[in-house]
Every structure is written in structure tokens, then in C-alpha cells.
Amino acid sequence: MLTGTIAQFVTGIGLVILRGAQERDITMGMVAIKLLVTAIVAVSLAAVIRLQRAAHRDGRVDAASRPWFHTAGVAAIANVVIAVVWA
Fold first, then answer.
1. From 59's CA, which of 22, 49, 71, 83 has a CA 20 to 30 Å away?
2. pTM of this prediction?
3. How far is it, in rounded angstroms, from Cα 53 to Cα 24?
4. Residue 40's pLDDT is what?
5. Is 23 left (phi over 0), alpha (psi -120 to 50) or beta?
């Protein structure tokens, strides 16, 4: 999921650069919202990684990271829906 988040960020920035190079209009509000959603995914995944490492280090089962996984998944899907519908 972390690789997918990085790919979302890099390809999003790349597409904005390409669109700007073609001298087309860029809706900065949409770009900002998609960047914010990608940041939510990245922060959620950072929390998951931190919680899982702590649980692994303590030798316990990690159930605390599940809500963060769900948040990251829903935000990633929302990012795709925003890209498709709000074009």
C-alpha cells in the first residue's frame, strides 16, 4: 500500500506537470484535494507501520492498526473516484 501511495503521488504530480506543459487549465483546487487525500493515505500507513512494528517488538497480536488500514484503503479508493468522476 505504501508503494501505491507513492505511485499516486508521483503520477499525480507528473500529470499536473504534463498538463501545465501543454498550457491547459489546471484546477488547483482539485489538485490540492487529491494531494490532501494522498497525504491522509500516507499518514494512515505511517501509523500502521509504527503500530505493527511496536506490536511485533512486544510479541503481541496487532489489532490496533486495523482502523488505520481501513482509513488508508477508503481514502485511496476515494482518491481514485475523485480522479475519475471529477475530471
1. 71
2. 0.79
3. 45
4. 93
5. left
